[in-house]
Predict the structure.
Amino acid sequence: MSSRIWSVDEHLDDILASVRPLEPIELQLPDAQGCVLVKDVVVEVALPPFDNSSMDGYAVRVADVEGASEEFPAVLTVIGDVAAGSAGLADDQAVGPGQAARIMTGAPLPAGAEAVVPVEWTDGGTGEGPADAMHAHSGAPEGATGEVRVHRPVTAGAHVREAGGDVEPGALALAAGSVVGPAQIGLLAAIGCATVVVRPRPRVVVLSTGSELVQPGEQLAAGQIYDSNSFALTAAARDAGAIAYRVGAVSDDAETLRATIEDQLIRADIVVTTGGVSVGAYDVVKEALSSVGDEDEPGSGVEFRKLAMQPGKPQGFGSIGPDHTPLLALPGNPVSSYVSFELFVRPAIRALMGLEDVHRPTARARLDTEKALTSPEGRRQFLRGRYDAEEGTVTPVGGSGSHLIAALAQADALIVVDEDTTSVEPGTETDVILLR
């Protein structure tokens, strides 16, 4: 382990300087969810591609329904049906003076028509009072012929979605750097894109170490605890946008750990370990990985460091394997591992994705507490807290102990206390990192 004390910023800068965005690939839309676009997507087909109705009703000429009311309805001759998905009326047909065409939502506006009258503003062709819905074509005795009484006037373009009203050909649909979410996939499909060029979601392998660890659901024996870190960090990796693989806890045996990690490299863009990085006699990660570097490859291997932070003082970072896969070795205490993930692993994942902003959002908030918070001199402390955006306050939850995981589940922010601050009085403004 290096004798140098690294700052939080130095360690993070070293990680981000070593991580390069993954190479772009072309993916089908369903597979691109969560990925980052590499190229701008330009609209080739107008959306919508033609003038169409936004309502079930009747396509009409504005002049024919001017002044219409329930007492004095405009009586129009129905010349045909226009259904969604159809080409519209016959080529030799158009809505002329005194005429209307039944039209369904999404159907193309027929030639001659200027607006759509919702069916609720008509008698639906029944000769009775206002209709509440359009009759199905098969069940409407009047079919698409006969007369319809219109009870209200409309203006030109009413209830019509104009061609290109959403986006015009040549317009920028999505810019490079956009994350492809459900709405973006919908837009891409709507403009006819079947595939997109993206950076793939990083594959993250998470494993915890310790002979004392037992999987949830199993019986605890004396001296054993449940493995929570691998579950929490795998979930955190998915939350960051990665494809995450959780490996069961590895016992305190250096050869076993080294072999396990080597086996996982085939499916890893980044490896995260938790536990075994301190100065104890059984700190297996440090033992297993301190000598994995390739003498012929500068910069390979894992360096173990002490950081000027609390929690999370012991950390490891480097690269392993033939592809120089980044590896981040985090402490084993639950809070230490989670805080370390947020500060170092999450930004690395986001950098692999090709995102420009890799950090969690931050805010300034007043400390809402009854007594001053203390912090060790020379270390940047990260305390769990609950942030109230409306009040602009943050309230500490739990103590500073790195094993207090129950409070972590209640926190939605980290309260940051700088290295040169040893006491923070109630009401003091401080930086907070927002976790949700």
Summary: The two ends are 34 Å apart (CA to CA).
